[in-house]
Fold this protein.
Amino acid sequence: MSGAGAAMRRVFVDGERAELDQPRAAELAGLAARVRELTEAVVHTDVDAAEVAAVSEEIAALTRRLAAARRAAPPIAAPVPGAPHIGRQLANPVTGPLNPIAPPVEIHTRPDRTVFCDFTLTSVYEGPPGFVHGGVSAMVLDQLLGAAAHAAGAPGMTAALDLRYRRPTPYGVPLRGEAEATEVVGRRTHTAARIIAPDGTVTVEATAVFVLPRGLTPEALGNVE
Ligand SMILES: CCCCCCCC(=O)SCCNC(=O)CCNC(=O)[C@H](O)C(C)(C)COP(=O)(O)OP(=O)(O)OC[C@H]1O[C@@H](n2cnc3c(N)ncnc32)[C@H](O)[C@@H]1OP(=O)(O)O
């Protein structure tokens, strides 16, 4: 089995990672939300130098308090029967409520196995002035495309990701992401996705190929009927 396949098995099947119950996950999600606010404040602050130095000291002290009990690796959520393990990664950088760098994006699956998300990116994700960084759009789309592969019953790791940036993606407004699997061939799943601005303009289109790591079954990734 590949390194990635073995690692997924250790985490999702063998229970190597700490599992958080819902109340604990909610506590830590609240902490991450405060840190997102802090990140926004840091990016936009115009307080004077003495205040910057004082706040830096306080933040360093807070970091030391949190690091006083440190896990070796990010924890995951307890398994939910019938749900994909991918959703258990509470520190995922796109969807993870525990990860302050995640917007976070919440992905939903429709009965027809297509997926979508409604999300707003703040100016923290700015690339070209006034618009979202292309790498951030790629990150969101990669996750959404991966969720589409899962939803189709044919999950895997991103083997190829192709992006077409049609129009700049605005931040600070509600965006819609949509994705679906288009073809499943053996361990390979072909997928397509797009980001849509509030006026209906498709700003980014993406296609991706997901490959199930050798030696893993879709069931081992915990998803599908
Ligand atoms: C399950 C939760 C994952 C969701 C996470 C969100 C998305 C991610 O961030 S994943 C992280 C980024 N991706 C990676 O790190 C992947 C790194 N790559 C790898 O580990 C391997 O190349 C891996 C697992 C994708 C494929 O390895 P391996 O199983 O040895 O491939 P291999 O046997 O050569 O090929 C299998 C099939 O895939 C196809 N394939 C492999 N790579 C590609 C590619 N880049 N493009 C198109 N097809 C490909 C092959 O042609 C072959 O097809 P067929 O069976 O029809 O001949």
